[in-house]
Each structure stands twice: as structure tokens, then as C-alpha cells.
Fold this sequence. Notes:
The protein has eight helices and 17 strands. The chain has helices spanning 36-44, 79-84, 92-102, 118-130, 148-165, 176-179, 199-204, 209-214; strands spanning 4-10, 16-22, 25-30, 50-52, 64-67, 136-140, 169-173, 184-189, 192-197, 219-223, 226-230, 236-238, 242-252, 255-261, 265-270, 282-286, 293-295. The strands form four sheets. It has a six-stranded mixed β-sheet with strand order 5-6-7-3-8-9, sandwiched between helices. Strands 12-16-13-14-15 form a five-stranded antiparallel β-sheet, with no helix packed on it. The model has no long low-confidence stretch (mean pLDDT 92).
Amino acid sequence: MTPFAVDYRLTHPIALHVAFEIRGFTALLGRSGAGKSSLIKALAGLVQATGTPWAGLPPELREVGYLPQNAALFPHLTALENVAYPLRGRDRFERAKTLLDELGLLDLAPRPATQLSGGQAQRVALARALAHRPKLLLLDEPSSGLDATTRDATFTWLIDTLAARGVPALAATHDPGLAGFTDWMVLLSEQKIIREGTPRDLFAAPGSVAAAELLGFENIWQEEQSWFAARSTDFRPATAGREARIVRVRAHGSGLRLDCAMPQPVIVHTENTAEAFTPGATLCLHIAPDKLRRLRS
């Protein structure tokens, strides 16, 4: 897909000026309150803003589909009626049914919206957003309202469906795990874009402390004048390496979480449950050089 350039300035409800590209399915990753949802609504024409594209056009003239948080289906309508709602013409229900069929959702057509699961509602809401053939799909926290079991499956289905139809998308999220599924990531911090790139590149080299925090690195610390980041699974107890003191030991899934002081606080996840890890004891932590990310402050 051709990159889709965005350059927008907002003054309300948050002061924000951003310029970045949408490439395929793009994640806008940022903390709560950073302005993600405001930007999504501005692109949809629901919040006043200046810039390109579409700024100044009323919502009904923008070639976008908008998927708000929690799907927001009309509860008194069936799935089919929800999808047909934005369409016009005598054949709108037939067109809505065809779309549901194309998306593998035809069996949900007669169900009232109140009888759909979270994942089903999200898929029907996507069908409604695609009904008028938008040039861009906007998604506001698409994982909200989904449980852990259906979250990843629903999100990857969204990505695959849009790729098959050739529709670019911008999804606002605070979840780095979901953002990692996308084609392109844009990091929003302190009301500005701090980095953009592929998930592989950004996770491999966050570049800054702010980026590493957004990307979910559990361990970020300073040694002398340098900053570093590492995943909790990047460290492993070994016979040689960085000396650390165990502060706390907790069960974590099938393994253990070790809170350590190196002397900087670090979290280590290990599947080695045969060894006795005792608070107050000293151990050595090994980390492969390519797993240690050097950062800018």
C-alpha cells in the first residue's frame, strides 16, 4: 500500500501537533492521556483540527471508517441491521449480508447485538465501518472490552481482513503486545511523535528511554552516563555474569519472577524452578550482548 501521510494540529481537548505516515495496518502507541483518541477522532472529523488530510471537511464527506472503543453497536438492532445502518438504497440489507458473508460472519446476521460476545461485536463493528468502502479505517483502542483469550485472535483477524481488502488502518492503542502485530508503529509521547518504524526495528532498537517504556521493556536502568533496556526474559541466572542480589521471589506462570538489585532494580523471569532462589542471596545474571539495548535519555 502507498504510505498515507498525516500532519495534524489540535488545540482542544489536548494541544498536539503530529506528522507521521500510515503504512498498511499502523499502530499509534501511547499512554493514556497522550492524545491518541483525540487524534483518531480528529481524523474522523469529530474533533476540530487543522492539517492534512481532510481537515475542514465534515465527517460525512471524509472517506474514513471509524471503529470506536467497545464496538458501540446499536443494542436494539441485529448484527445485519447494524452493518446496513450506514448504507443507503433498497438493496442495503443485501449488500450488508454480502459483506458479512465475505468476512465469514453471516451466521451472526440475525443475532441481536446484545447477544454477541466481545470478539463477535468487534468483528461486526468492523463490517459496519467497512460497509461504505472507506479509504482509511480508524480504530480507537480496538482491544478494549476484549478478554485475553479473544484479544489476539480478534486483532489479527482485523489485520488480515483489512490487508486482504487493501484498506490501510490507524489503530490507537496503549498495548505494545498488540502493536507488535502491525505493519508499522508510531510512538506518541509527551504530545509528540518520538519514533516510527516497523515493530521489528523498534523492538530491536527502541532508541530512547521514552520509547522503551512505551514498548513495554520491564527493565530500564542507568549505568554511569548510559541508559539500557532489557526484557525480563533476556536475563538468565548463570555461573558468571552481572552480580545481583535477590530481593523477592514470586511464582509466575510455570516459572518464577525474581526481583533483583544489580544494584539497579531489575526483573528476571526464569523457568528454572529446580534451583532454590532465596531473598537476600546473590546470583550472577547473564545477558547476551544483542539483547542489551543502549538508549538515549
